[in-house]
Amino acid sequence: MAKYSRIEVATTMKVNGMIPLFFHSDIEISKKVLKACYDGGSRLMEFTSRGDFAFEVFGALNKYALAELPGMILGAGSVTDAAAASLYMQLGANFIVTPVLREDIAIVCNRRKVLWSPGCGTLTEIAKAEELGCEIVKLFPADTYGPEFIKGIKGPSPWTSIMPTGGVFPTEESLSSWLNAGATCVGIGSQLISKEIIDNKDFEGLKNKVSEVLEIIKKIRK
Q1: Residues 31 and 65 sit within 8 Å (Cβ to Cβ)
Q2: How far is 139 from 99, CA to CA, in rounded Å?
Q3: Consecutive H or E run containing 87
C-alpha cells in the first residue's frame, strides 16, 4: 500500500523538479543508487520494471526506503498493464509511470488513489489521460518532440502538467530548455545514473551529480 497520497507525490514532483529513474537487478547496488540520490537531495525515485524479477528487487528496495530513508518516495516505471501496476502497488509503489496511455492502468491506480503518469505524445492523448484523472502527464520519448512541443501544448491547455522523459540531460542548457518551455518536472535516466557510474560504483559522484542537478533547477526557477 502506498505511504504517500497522489497529492503528496504530485506536489513533491513539482517541488523536486526531477525524478531519477533506473533499473538494476542487484538489490545491494540498487540500494546504493537509491541512497546516493537521497543523499543528493532527491526525494523521488522511479524504479523501472525492465528485467526479470524486477518486482522482487522493487519490494526489497521499498522496504529499505521505508526503514532507512525517511521521506523518500519510490515508484515503479515502465509498467505496461493493470496486472503489473496492481502488483507494484501491492509492494507499496507510491506512483506508477507507464510508456503508453492505458485505461486499465488508470482504473486500478485511481481505485487505490495512487498517482499514475502515462506516456503521451499528442494533445488528444493528454486530454484523454486528464479525463481519466491523470495529474502529471509523461511526455515520452521527449527527445522526439522537444521543448517546443510542451510550449505548444500549454497554449490551449495551460492547466496541463508535463514531465518530459527520454532525451533530458543533466545540464543547465537542457534543463533550462525544458523547464522554461513549461515542464513541471523532468525524468532523467541513464544520462544521470550512467552505466559508468554503476560499473565504477561511484555513488559519491552520483550523489554530487543529483545535488548539482537540483541546484540547477532551483536556479532556473528563480
Answers
A1: no
A2: 9
A3: helix 82-90
Instruction: Report residue 73's pLDDT band, with 50, 70 and 90 as the boundaries.
Output: very high
Q: Which residues of 120-153 are buried (b: 16+ CB within 10 A; e: fewer)?
A: bbeeeebbbbbebebbbbbbbebeebbbebbeeb
pLDDT confidence of 97, banded at 50, 70, 90? very high
Contact 99, 140 (CB under 8 A): yes
Q: Exposure of 157 by Cβ count < 10 A (0-12 exposed, 13-18 middle, 19+ buried)?
A: middle
Share of the chain above pLDDT 70, in %: 100
Q: Which pTM was predicted?
A: 0.97
At 169, which helix (H) or strand (E)? none
Q: Which grid cell sits at 83?
A: 496486472
Q: Which residues contact 217 (CB under 8 A, 6 or more apart)?
A: 17, 18, 175, 179
Report the candidate in 97, 72, 220, 93 with the shortest Cα–Cα distance to residue 166.
97
Task: Indicate the length of the chain as a whole number.
Answer: 222
Q: In terms of Cα–Cα distance, which of 115, 168, 108, 152 is closest to 137?
A: 115
